Amino acid sequence: MSDLLPDASADARTLWNRLRDGDASLWPEGNVSPTRLGWIESPQRMLDGAAELQSWAATITQRRIVLLGMGGSSLGPEVLRSASGSDRLVVLDTTDPRTVSGVDLDDALVLVSSKSGGTLEVQALLAHCWDRIGDPSRFVAITDPSTPMAALAAERGFARIFENDPDIGGRYSVLSYFGLVPAALTGYDVAALCRRALAVDVAEAVELGLAMGAAALEGRDKVTIKTTSAMAAFGLWIEQLIAESTGKQGKGCIPVPTLEAEEGDDRFALAVHVGEAHDLAAEFYRWEIATAIAGHVLGIDPFDEPNVTESKENTAKVLASLPLDAAPAEDPGGVLEWLEGTVQPGDYVSLQAYLPYGEEAALETLRRLVRDRLGGVAVTAGYGPRFLHSTGQLHKGGPPSVVAVQIVPTGPTAELDIPGFPYDFGTLIGAQAAGDHQSLVEHGRRVLRVRADHIEEVG
Asked: What CATH number does the domain located at 306-457 have?
């Protein structure tokens, strides 16, 4: 990896050298960076092993790859899948029973992607897939060394276990095995991806992080990132990276992915231009550097996620006292009126849909409707429980400017047991919604809970 270009600012040169050398003093005392900076050298390490990975991928004959993961383990692969147009990879990162039951497991290789194996969603999804397939030769694990997932995969005789560098956190892992194994299986040239990342202008990436952090301190904390429709999924990845990394201690950069230009006094507007799918690697690396530097500017640790654990604990508490209580919810038709009476200047709206996948267009339409109805306010939208492992950190730990709308179904979307668990998928996603609602309320966030079976009912 080269040093900065000669025309880079002295500040950027100094910051890059400190970041590259693992200088933990870039962030507050007690930060977890000593065990979270493996991503900096990951493109070079993966380049060295690219030929072997590519050769292995060529031996996989199944027509479908089903990836089980959450947060950083799944969003990077989802971006790569979408950008390539591949229909071979299915990213399963929800506990919604209709979505889970709708995944065809015939002639599928199941890729279990989890840093530790302790994530509840991944455990439930693996139980479902193992019950229906049961053939260890059709299972592959990506995990850290000496983890419960590594032990389970070895015990069951998985076809292969990819042990990742443990010094890489989930949201910074796309250029490691977590992103590049599914990339190889969907037709990407892994070596080309690594070379694009290594060729990134690190000076520009550092300057981007400095500008993003400074803008947030000045009140322009809504990082509005315009992408093209072909690269719309990139917004999912960059949203979780920035939100989970910077949203803590009441501070944060609030990422707002969009396909249209959006302006406002609280906006820090950027555009992402990706020529072709392999160019995503440069964007991944550029934004990882920028986000780490933004954390330096904000004076926070960009590598921990304290409030993600909180929502997990709340979910566990709900599941320990079943059956689920029928939590009160409002009429979905009154959402706009409630928002008009609640949202203040500088706020942003978070639309949180605990519904089956497949309504992305309707969710984007609702996002734009809310934005326009409220005079251009920043609005984000996403599926639960996916966001609990990413932007959920920002909602609880970041600025108190969030106004959340939680959309839950009127009843279970399908009946689907989880083998070996004392509850089904419908109960699990219901508990996750209830646990997150509790977290938001406990943090004093303004939140409206509504029941609807389709996004079109909300307005």
From this structure: 3.40.50.10490
Question: Exposure of 443 by Cβ count < 10 A (0-12 exposed, 13-18 middle, 19+ buried)?
Answer: middle
Kindly calculate the radius of gyration of the chain based on its CA atoms and give it in whole angstroms: 21
Distance from C-alpha of 226 to C-alpha of 273, rounded to nearest angstrom:
9
Q: Which CATH superfamily does the domain covering 10-28+195-298 fall into? A: Glucose-6-phosphate isomerase like protein; domain 1 (3.40.50.10490)
Q: Which CATH class is domain 42-192?
A: alpha beta
Q: What is the largest CA-CA distance in the chain?
A: 64
For residues 69 and 89, give the distance between their C-alpha atoms in angstroms, rounded to a whole number. 13
* pLDDT tens digit at each of 459 positions of the chain: 333 333 457 788 889 999 999 999 999 999 999 999 999 999 999 999 999 999 999 999 999 999 999 988 899 999 999 999 889 999 999 999 999 999 999 999 999 999 998 889 999 999 999 999 999 999 999 999 999 999 999 999 999 999 999 999 999 999 999 999 999 999 999 999 999 999 999 999 999 999 999 999 999 999 999 999 888 889 989 999 999 999 999 999 999 999 999 999 999 999 998 989 999 999 999 999 999 999 999 999 999 988 877 878 888 888 998 888 877 889 999 999 999 999 999 999 999 999 999 999 999 999 999 999 999 999 999 999 988 878 889 999 999 999 999 999 998 778 999 999 999 999 999 999 999 999 999 999 999 999 999 999 998
CA 232, 237, 240, 246 dihedral sign is negative
Domain boundaries, the chain: 10-28+195-298, 42-192, 306-457
